[in-house]
């Protein structure tokens, strides 16, 4: 799911739980404003996809890094990820709460 800074969904996919988040990310249209930052969790750490997305769409994919990743973020970027990453979890919870069990 891609949401804006207010938590409003822009684009999303429903997939089976066994589907890799990283593979689904590559299915999005990514019709985002120029110079957008797309914050993601550790499942989306893919340096070649990050580079391609920036080169062709000028979108910065800022994924949370594992401690042993070679391309670490600065403290400010890590704080940005932490601040906004919870929004997507809140949106997911809101959607799931409206689905039949």
How would you characterize this protein structure?
The chain is an alpha+beta fold and 101 residues long. The protein has one domain (2-97). The protein contains 3 helices and 4 strands. The strands form 2 sheets. It has a two-stranded antiparallel ribbon with strand order 1-2. A two-stranded parallel ribbon has the order 3-4. Strand 1 and strand 2 (9-11) form a beta hairpin. The longest helix has 23 residues, at 75-97.
Features:
alpha+beta; two-stranded antiparallel ribbon; two-stranded parallel sheet; globular
SSE blueprint and pairings:
Blueprint: E1 2-3, E2 9-11, H1 21-25, E3 37-40, H2 47-57, E4 60-63, H3 75-97
Parallel strand pairs: 3-4
Antiparallel strand pairs: 1-2
A few lines on this structure:
The chain has 101 residues and is α+β, with helices and mostly antiparallel strands. It has helices at 21-25, 47-57, 75-97, and strands at residues 2-3, 9-11, 37-40, 60-63.
Order of helices and strands: EEHEHEH
Number of helices: 3
What is the approximate shape? Answer: globular
Question: What number is the mean pLDDT?
Answer: 82
> First CA to last CA: what distance?
21 Å
What's the β-strand tally?
A: 4
Identify the strand order in the major beta sheet: 1-2
**What is the helix fraction of residues, given as a range?**
25-40%
**Total number of distinct structural domains:** 1
Specify the structural class: alpha+beta
Rg to the nearest angstrom? 14 Å
Strand proportion = 5-15%
Main sheet record? 2 strands, antiparallel
- Taking pLDDT < 50 over at least 5 consecutive residues as the criterion, the unreliable ranges are none
